[in-house]
Amino acid sequence: MIQTDILIIGAGPTGLFAVFEAGLLQLKCHLIDALPQPGGQCAEIYPKKPIYDIPGFPEVLAGDLVDNLMKQIEPFQPGFTLGERADTIEKLEDGSFIVTTNKGTQHKAPIVAIAGGLGSFEPRKPLLENLKKYEDNGVSYMVKDPEVYRDKKVVIAGGGDSALDWSIFLADVASEVTLVHRRNEFRGALDSVEKVQQLKNKGKINLITPAEIEGLNGEDKLESVLIRKKTTAIEDITLEVDHFIALFGLSPKLGPIGDWGLEIEKNAIKVDTFDYQTNVPGIYAIGDINTYNGKLKLILCGFHEATLMCQSAYQRIFPDKKYVMKYTTVGGVTGFDGSKKEAPKAVVKAID
Amino acid sequence: MSDIKIKITDREGVTHEVDAPTDMNMNLMEVVRSYELAPEGTIGVCGGMAMCASCQCYVKSDHVLPEMSDDEDAMLAEAFNVEDNSRLGCQIHMTEDLDGLEVELAPES
């Protein structure tokens, strides 16, 4: 079981900055995120977009902001559980919490800070009637283990980077790869698009565009798909396949956190602006996932909320300790890794 | 600059006639949010970068709309329930030319 002082759910900018503020108070943090990398939306949706309203940065790319935050919190050695979604929470008698992920990883902490942004990113599923029946029986929304597809017939649907990249990768693994997309144009890195073109020319990828998968068939598991080609005349193709991988991107959902007994309003968690605590003492919500009168979903507001949350968390953990906030210009930054950063001392020396 | 009138049919099928300012640099998605015609968190998820399709709408009137950017076109190529008259609300800026615009919000997906 992973143990920490503040368990942060969501490794976006707000969650990352909370590690820094907690570190100044000598509190350790561990972060859980459903995405495989830290950074949240900044890393997943718009890493190359410039942000203009981070104080002190006239312009910063979202991806660079994440890199900077990771560097800033490095001395505080945060732990990460990535690629797993926080599913359940249990309150123990001593007031601490156990949070378990969808993969069964358990985390124990006296404080839980939900910095979940828009929620956890879940694959967007195509609107097909009997989709559920074939989930884990031939239909999947991500590639977990490419070996599953070795020497199998695979159809991939989608028009973005992941559809292109997996088509390229599986061309050498699967016995047959068919890529279906609604348009003739693909949105992805230029070399991925070119690589798919080459593989198509070599006959290693069977490309069907503009077309959509309209039906799934099979007794117990997926045996074939119905592909509707939408050129001048509509043409229906039945393709025998073992696997259908639908790669239509990710969309954020509040998900299981919605069932944690927290007060929810407008798809967000209600908090007290005194310290961003929820209706459950010890559980806080910071950043885009919370709501209160006058709430603005801005990164800079998330930073502020994270800072106040940490002060309150400290007092919850150490109710009897006297403490006053110390400026980093005065106290410097002492990392858990033994590193110390501080302002250089002024020299006191007479001038002749 | 003055307000324009637009008709927005929400996801329950109810049509609302609303005033949209043309001098606030607002887009259609933001107009929908300002009148709370769709629950927060179900529209404008990416904030208006044409990177999700939560503000997809069907344009019912024959107004001349701004040309689709590559980003919007590509996003609609991946979205669901897309029709020939689909647009992303966040890419439609409120201008005086759009007075009388009629749109319907696409289902949530």
UniProtKB/TrEMBL annotation, chain A:
InterPro entries found in the cross-reference section: FAD/NAD-bd_sf, FAD/NAD-binding_dom, Fd--NADP_Rdtase_type_2, Ferredoxin-NADP_redctase_2
Enzyme Commission code: 1.18.1.2
Catalytic activity as recorded in UniProt: 2 reduced [2Fe-2S]-[ferredoxin] + NADP(+) + H(+) = 2 oxidized [2Fe-2S]-[ferredoxin] + NADPH
Chain ranges of the FAD/NAD(P)-binding domain: 5-296
Pfam families: Pyr_redox_2 (PF07992)
Gene Ontology molecular function terms on file: ferredoxin-NADP+ reductase activity; flavin adenine dinucleotide binding; NADP binding
Cofactor(s) required for function per UniProt: FAD
Binding site residues for FAD: T14, D33, Q41, Y46, A86, F121, D288, T329
Keywords, in A-Z order: FAD, Flavoprotein, NADP, Oxidoreductase
Cofactor note: Binds 1 FAD per subunit.
Quaternary structure and interacting proteins, as annotated: Homodimer.
Family, per entry: Belongs to the ferredoxin--NADP reductase type 2 family.
Protein name: Ferredoxin--NADP reductase
Species for this entry: Euzebyella marina
Automatic annotation (TrEMBL), chain B:
Keywords: 2Fe-2S, Iron, Iron-sulfur, Metal-binding
GO MF terms, alphabetically ordered: 2 iron, 2 sulfur cluster binding; electron transfer activity; metal ion binding
Gene Ontology annotations of biological process type: P450-containing electron transport chain
Cofactors named for this entry: [2Fe-2S] cluster
Cross-referenced Pfam families: Fer2
Endoplasmic reticulum among keywords: no
Domain 2Fe-2S ferredoxin-type: 4-109
InterPro entries per record: 2Fe-2S_ferredoxin-like_sf, 2Fe-2S_ferredoxin-type, Adrenodoxin-like, Beta-grasp_dom_sf
Recorded family membership: Belongs to the adrenodoxin/putidaredoxin family.
Protein name: Ferredoxin
Organism the protein comes from: Euzebyella marina
Organism lineage string: Bacteria, Pseudomonadati, Bacteroidota, Flavobacteriia, Flavobacteriales
